[in-house]
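Section 3.1 - Work completed
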Amino acid sequence: MMPDPPGAPARMLSTLVRVIGDRSVAAAPSVAVPSLAAGTRKLVPALVGTILVLPSLVWVSIDRSIWPWDPSWYGEVSIDLWATLRTEPSNWPGAMAHAFGAKPPAVAWLGQFFVPLGEILGRDQTALLLSVVLCQAVTIALVYAALARLAGAAPAVCGALLVAASPLFVSMSHEYFAEPIQTVAVAWLVLIVARAPQRRAALTLAQLPGALALAMLAKLSSPAYVAAPAAGALLLLWLHRTRPPEPGPAWRDSSVLASSLGSAALVLGAIGWYRVNLEAAIRHARNASADNGLYGVDRGFARQFPDWIERLRDASFLPRFWVVVAILAAVSLTLASARGLRISLRDPRIVVGAASLVSVVLVCAALASQPNNETRYLLPLVPLVAVTFALLVAAARSRPILVVALGVLVLEFAGTTLQSFGYARAGGFAADRVTSPVEDSSFAATLEDVVRRTCTEDSSAGINVVGGEYAWLNANTLEMLAHSRYAEQGRRCYYTSLGYAESSAQAAWDRIGYLTPPYIIAVDYGNPGNPLPPDLAAAAGRRDPFNRVNRPILERVRESPRYEIVPGSRSSGLVIFRRVAEH
């Protein structure tokens, strides 16, 4: 049964407005809820983060969808790292250093430790998604903690709700990508900036390298996201350098010591991985942003920059909700100006707000300078949008505005959550990216059967070929399923495509001749007795640059004396060929 998503935030809203709803809350960064003990108060950010990701926790527990390309690759490497740690621990450091090769490894480095939960949950994919939900909860907690320090508890709830209600944030809680870890790093930097003037400089300096290293371990593009917040933290350290010294030496402070050790581990990890893979990572980034028509079309900066701003708007808010939020932000800014809003670089609220806006402009400008149009790249900006809005609401020092903002965000959180479970899709309030879980998939069972037939002791010595590059049938997906099933048994089976966006049937056939794959898995095109499920058939019927040679290669395999159909393998629109033993 689906939990009532708006219940907990609504109760939190009524309590906060009743206890701390006066104007002084928004004006005083250091105000604390008087009824909470200091120890309990430290748990509030974690509690808020946990409550607001509960719907996503339910979502991932019931989803049985087929993972497409990149999530499957991330999952495969995560599973492989855990299997290596279990079965070949001496090879694990090398596997960590070479993970992915072309993409930073944080998603797999973290995800591998969730793989054992797959035995309990019945599915490794579910266990891996728990690592994503954990990152999302940490992001919310960090945003709340930063805003509680800057503006008080009620604006902090406002910011936390905006993050949790964001359509992009919710959808990315259900997918296995690297951006949630990058978002944690950005939110961590916001907290570092928020606390920089109040705590000892050694603690800020100890945490900064860790946050920056975590960002780089997540994505190579991270400098555009983290440069402004990092500069803000250093600026506040400099401007507040004359504050009274902390009692005792920094090296005896347990927080400084723990932060230093954690940062050192992250920095060493980043240095170790990039020392091995920097060239490949840069090459991959260039290919991903190249104007080759595969991931988008470069229409020029002047046209693409406004598009990315609109995408950020739609990533942060449900349709029409952004209008109300924009009005609230404008009214808040007007009230704050009328009440003598002071702009001072010594004020962490001003620095956090400025760093957030600069980051939004930098990232959107960078994205507008290349053709790739993946919306998920905007996820790390959502906490910055939330922090900026919450600070504006706090600066207005108006209880009605605060109450309205919290009410609107509670409604948006409820709407996004309901949509994620397949409800509230009617009308103009639905976000395109938020989808409901797939509770049962017969085609997923077909893929499991394909893996069972093609991942054998004999085939593990070779590389199987997959004659399709669809979200539901590709080499990455099959390889992840094979690793999930057999890696801890010491069997690793590998799958590859006919070639990356291959356009030449002869080149694809030559690739098969070179690889001599034990098995070839293909869509059974043109066989009315073995049709694909209707929704997949529609996708297979469309022209795209990644599946141009599938049909001619299928005909060549059918006619080749080197391959024969595996008996009983024709199912759900797929067919398997195996290589005939040569005598």
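Second construct:
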Amino acid sequence: MRRKVDFCADWRFIREDVGIEQADEAATEPVTLPHTWNAQDGTDGGNDYHRGRCWYAKRFPMPAHSSEEEVWLEFEGAAMSAQVFLNGNLLCTHDGGYATFRVNLTDHLQAENVLAVSVDNSKNDRVYPQKADFTFYGGLYRPVWLLTVPKVSFDLSDSSSGLFVTAEMQGPDALVTLEAHTQHADDGETVVFSVEGIGEVRGAVQWNQARAQMLISNAHLWEGKRDPYLYRATATLSSGDQVSASFGCRSFAFDPQQGFLLNGRRYPLCGAARHQDRQGVGSAITEAMMEEDMNIMLEMGANTIRLAHYQHAQAFYDLCDQKGMIVWVEIPYITEHMANGRENTLSQMRELITQCCNHPSIVCWGLSNEITASGGVNDDLMENHRLLNDLCHRLDPTRPTTMAHAFMLDHHHPLVRLTDIRSYNLYYGWYLGDLEDNDAWFDAYHAEHPNEVIGLSEYGADANPAYQSPNPERGDWTESYQAVYHEHMLKMWQERPYIWAMYCWNMFDFGADGRNEGGKPGQNQKGLVTFDRKTKKDSFYLYKAWWSSDRFVHICSKRFVDRCGKKTTIKVYSTDDTVTLMVNGKTVGKKTSSDHVFTFTVPLDGDLDVEAFSGLKKDTAHFHKVDKPNPAYKLVKNKNAQKSNWVDN
């Protein structure tokens, strides 16, 4: 019988490369996993956070196990490269900071054991990511588990569950293929596959693989947020080893005119991208923090998430399955192609697919992100992408491939044509150009390529909620401009149903230590919610007004308390189509809108106590008249900001 024990306590750490000979004695700082050494210096700006090889150590007695069992360690994430030593013996090297990997301890266990793990996030030219607009946190930042399994067991070496489930819809029925990978099993050994509430089938092991099929009549569909129904499959060996996996029965398609279809019906996708870190803890987040992130996105009404720019925790993919989110996943092949990094892209993609293919929420594999942004395209980059594309199709023929292209890449380029579906990152209206340039770009693309599937993988504008303006403009970092920006982008999306998905960049502000701008060094502030998850920017409520079924009213720019002039504009977001405004107890207007935005101009005569109503829902705000603009509302430009931005390093 398989046993899984939490192995996160009683570790010791040292933020130096002391070597294996000194690791156990030198590591004296007590830590409990998950842990990163960049929780503070990775988000304070300057691009000077510690990148190097550090050590973790742990002593433990011989785990209880019989001669017919093996003992393994499972690391859910070690960033970016790890070496695992037991009693001085190097057992494993793993390159890639975001996937699970396992180590067999059995043959090296003693009565008392010293485990030492080096983790390295140093700069190099072979392990991705190396150049990107986010902090590359180092550490054992996800849980570690001690596994005890029978020698004849489901395969642990590729760090998947060992059970792979594919449900193919055949009308109202689902043909479910169940495949198991084993280790040390004799040919002919029986694997019993079962689906809870349905039945069981058997498959015989050949070359450490067993396969069987089962038909689920009138399958209960996984319908996204409408009904995220999950089945549970289990595989069992005669040794007693058993593994399980949830799966969903659904079909999906990408249409050049209608966008995304789920179970044969159009299912417009609009959501946001997510980085896994948060203020104060970096990447070493807990499952409770993941649940909070999911709940915030659900409150906003999002139905899709781009999990950027790397493999996220399995616990979060599980949440996506359970809550009905449609998910884009990808590897950290980003910004700059490295000639020595090809094998690492392939190994990270292999891990992503084998570890995540059972999740019904996932609908595509992302090969890279803005890979042409630094260095353009060469033959080696093209070949790397061809190999990745072929690998995805070989490992999982049920899902398409995609890429997130930088807006400057010509859409006729062969790299754009390589994947099954296409997506671009567009920042017109923020980094350059006007908001209307986004509309023009999509109109031109769709007119020239009417039979191609195209999506918007990134768009956004930075906003520090402290900054406000009565006349917001591109580049001012105000919450006010971010709201105007997203008002335009949502209307643009609504008018173009062929856009298969639109992912706001980003759901949350995130750590980017190379940035020094917008009043908060070390952060990318394009999030709809602040890095600490405590402040929802006005744009959050705009998306909630468009997507959520919860009726509400939100008065914008509440942080813009001190106001000048004879008149002032009060903007309101609501799920409803009519809003009434009262100022100082008197009704001043009633507005109707089809785009959830209601704008009122009122006299600014002393203090204003404002109430906005829609049915029984209301919101309140207070504004104060001043003679001169409050300087705290305006960004003071940092002359040195651009010199320390990540793009220049």
